[in-house]
Amino acid sequence: MLPTTRARHAMLAETVSGGSGGMADWDVVVVGAGAAGMVGALRAAAGGARVALLERDAAAPSNLALSGGLFSAAGSRWQHEAGVEDGPDRFAADITDKTGGAVPQPLLRTVTQGARDAAHFLADSAGLPIHLSQTARFPGHSAPRLHATPAESGAELAALLRAAVRRAPRIAWLEGCDAVALRSGACGVAGVEVSDGGAARRVLPAAWVLLAGGGFGGNAARKARHLPGASGALHVGAASNDGRGMDWLDQLGAALRCMDSYQGQPHVCRDGDGTHRLGAALPALGAVMVNQQGLRFAAEDMGPSELTAHVLAQPGGAVEIWDAAAQDTALRQGPFRAATEAGLVWGGGGLATLAARFGLPPDALADTLRDAAACARGEQTDQHGRTHWGTPLQAPFFAAAITGGLAHTQGGAVVDAGARVLRADGSAIPGLLAAGGAACGVSGTGAAGYVPGNGLAQAFALGLAAGATAAG
Prior knowledge:
Layout: H1 5-12, E1 26-31, H2 35-46, E2 51-55, H3 63-66, E3 71-72, H4 77-81, H5 88-99, H6 105-124, E4 131-132, E5 146-148, H7 154-167, E6 171-175, E7 178-185, E8 188-195, E9 201-211, H8 220-226, E10 234-235, H9 244-251, E11 256-257, E12 262-269, E13 288-290, H10 304-312, E14 318-323, H11 324-330, H12 334-341, E15 346-349, H13 351-358, H14 362-376, E16 397-409, E17 412-413, E18 420-422, E19 428-434, H15 454-471
Parallel strand pairs: 1-2, 1-9, 2-6, 9-19, 10-16
Antiparallel strand pairs: 3-5, 4-5, 7-8, 8-9, 11-17, 12-16, 13-14, 14-16, 15-16, 18-19
């Protein structure tokens, strides 16, 4: 039988110093205040647990804040209100189809069922204003199941979650507190060793530790080892994704899976400081991509993560082109608005002006856009295999110079339905939980299995499960 939080406290009494009456100071210490960490902290606190939430640098954006803020959930009340028929089984079937069945079945069930529960928890317990986003349909989803807060922005979603965390009296938000090691004892993981920026270190004893970091996208050595095909891509995720959680998991003998899986981002603006993205909605709204010869090079309606490799393969980068109707619709989403406000979107001109602005051969570009329009009208078959076009593009055109990036990794610890970290033999490592970038995702292997919204679905579902486990 797995120990409850109360039993974990009793076992820790003889192995951990500090606390009242020999008890651990905290029911759970959460390492990382991103999507998984904040949901885990909120759920644990809602169950009566005492929570320490560690944030290395509160001023630096997390993967959540840098994301589009869209998360998948199937069978939610917002879908029901919109007349959308969906549920966990259909969600699981979509993931299985996209990943070729590479996602472990227990994890698949936990995420596809838990994402819906997490969406309701965010609304009912954390007070977030959730809605069903229908801005665009994305490859990999057979039904509209992307949810968001009003601005459809990761920055907004992160801010709303932070506000909810700060309202929770049982959560201590420890800013500037850097987790540098896990403390282990005879009964398993017993706390976290932290630094406040100086040489001195201290231990935060806990009955449970939840690893909720953002993966290893910022760790060059691990990327070269696990993601050789994407190791040279621009990392557009949080700088804190240094992979130290993976090192700890390795040391403890945790089973790691799908370590070559990642979310590629094919809509990163080449101009500016490299932090702006156009978001994944543009292809569904009819946008096309061309190389420096003014030629299309891939089916833009494939999954955005797998499209990244095609963008990266274009010498000199690529240009994404759309029209006024797509511009108006895409402005509903936060990352696209931010890129437009930063002056990274050119727009409002005809073909000749567009070609001159980006240095593209005008005749080749004219042929490309004419062929694309014919495909969109069903008059010819696309040589690249694109089947979803939206309406044919027409002037005035909008465009941006783009490249490919690595948003975040999707591999990590194998966990059970309660987000407990498992060893290769299936036994749980006592006291250790994982969610978000520290846990195996639902994207299978490589880049092709990632579907927009599924990264946050895993983070929220496993965060919710971890919080329930920590609350006992």
